[in-house]
């Protein structure tokens, strides 16, 4: 049974099997879980539990807190990883062109629906129900009457009473007068302002981002940089050049697509980036609700065909305050896996949520269950058809390795590599078993990569070795 890009088992699944106890798994879910570390996931003990529960990548978001705080958290992560004997890559999330609303009073500001409020770039003015200061001087130049503005707390879900919707009624000099569409209470020092489908004349890679990357990022040899608000392929090229100039050329770039501009230039961004993060939070503001699903499904499909990792965000927002996700959220996570997503990013759920460990564990279990009914055979055929013929040598070897592993029901695929290219190509075909990459140093290495397939039959093993050229092209 299948529909659209959904990957379900071709043979129907007996509904009674849903009631059967879950079978023990040797490996956790193949879908990776990115956990954002913060106040409620800062300690060594909690991070240990998150790692044990299935967290694969630790995300450090510099929109919140400074380098000193994040360094303390990273030091705790390293202790925790050593204690549980698990590797955990580091993801640095940039700030980018983010407009912040500053509440210098720190007190709660209640705005009543039906009233008007003025947005001003004058930070010396005290925030109130009548005026909100922002750290951006050109808002009045880029918005027009009728435009929609959204103000929410950091990592907003969109459903809190702190989420404020405004409609621009007029501009006066550098100030913007707005109609308040709903009643909301803003409590906290900083909020984020989002303008729907309007280009903001701020650089994607800010000076603050550069300073953080060249200091904290370099010092800690970050594995991945999540480039927030990526709007074009030029944004990715600029960051890559900056990384190379600071001896961080091995750091991967995951372009965070979270606005209409990013969607418009998705194909060119995908070509330049190492991976994609589909940020459904901000996309849900830029797009009508009925079109969000299509951006997710189409984006995931394009990434799958290109053989590049894709991660989605905002899946179990209710677990910020609740021990269990809603039924809709649980289904959403499973459907994302069936769509072909490679990873799930948890933001507020682990940063300020009350149940960070449970959020990781629950999402991991849902992913693992969805993977049991994922139609890998259909995905394999789609990728082969997309690649076309004649295949280049590396594609041919990678696809053959996965096909052989599937036929012998292999326990794992082990790739000996020095550039990682062979492992990434094999992962592109989404083998239903783990792919383990063993990295050789470049100096004195054999110019070929070996792909080893293990078949477990009782106490015996069958090993097949295939060599493929893994040179970067």
From TrEMBL:
Its EC number is 2.7.1.40. Gene3D superfamilies: Phosphoenolpyruvate-binding domains, PK beta-barrel domain-like, Pyruvate kinase, C-terminal domain. It catalyses: pyruvate + ATP = phosphoenolpyruvate + ADP + H(+). Residues 31-360 form the Pyruvate kinase barrel domain. Keywords: ATP-binding, Glycolysis, Kinase, Magnesium, Metal-binding, Nucleotide-binding, Pyruvate, Transferase. Its cofactor is K(+). Pathway: Carbohydrate degradation; glycolysis; pyruvate from D-glyceraldehyde 3-phosphate: step 5/5. Residues 395-439 form the Pyruvate kinase C-terminal domain. GO terms for molecular function: ATP binding; kinase activity; magnesium ion binding; potassium ion binding; pyruvate kinase activity. Signal peptide: none annotated. It is an enzyme of class 2 (transferase). InterPro entries: Pyr_Knase, Pyrv/PenolPyrv_kinase-like_dom, Pyrv_kinase-like_dom_sf, Pyrv_Knase-like_insert_dom_sf, Pyrv_Knase_brl, Pyrv_Knase_C, Pyrv_Knase_C_sf, Pyrv_Knase_insert_dom_sf. Belongs to the pyruvate kinase family. This is Pyruvate kinase.
